[in-house]
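Chapter review: from sequence to fold.
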Amino acid sequence: MVDTEEGGLYVVKFRGAGQGAKVLVSELIVGGLALRLGLPTPELALVEVSDRFGRSEPDPEIQELLRRSHGINVGMRYLEGAFNFDPTAAGDLVSPELAAKIVWLDAFTTNPDRTHRNPNLLIWQRSPWLIDHGAALYAHHDWGSVDAERTRTPFLLIRSHVLLAVAGSLAEADAENAAKISPSVIGDVMATVPDELLMDTAEGSGDFPSGDAARERYARYLTERLAARAVWLATATEAQEQLRVEAPQRLEARR
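The token string follows.
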């Protein structure tokens, strides 16, 4: 958590950690799409980390992480007092309509990280909030293998989605969400991603010759995937129907 100079606390993801800058790119793109769909998502911000930051850190591993994170990072507004979503305790705070829209977004952006084990949903002021989209858009980790067929591919991991069984009509969510995402909206979202993250030299990124070329590739992937949504939406709908007809597992009791 970082207290910024311009005011307010942000939970910051550092580009020097984990899978690097592409996680931050996913945060900006998927979080930006969620905001434009009207889904409850904390405010996103670009956070500039000074080269003086972390010099006094005694742990050499943490100091190295902070050193690699100098420059632009991504922050999400800190929701004070929020707690992790638990379907058994807060399931009634997520309506079937909202759940369906969230499932739709995660199938569209291939987000595997909204499961019962790790829902990446917070409850704040009795409302759910979407967080942590760094694992989404995993195709961008290997652009060389992303052809038209892979762009249209179903998202099989949607079966593990924490909200799939309780979601309402995915067809209705599709009609509402798809109407809000046009090529110009995708372009606006991509414009929020800075060159420094798209062309991160620390990762040895050689995917694109320029930030504009990278933005164009992401935009084309998202536009083509949206146009082919009948494929991945059918898979999500089938998985939802299967979950609803499966008998609940019996629990065994031992003395």
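Two observations follow directly from the output. The chain has one domain: 2-245. The chain has a mean pLDDT of 91.
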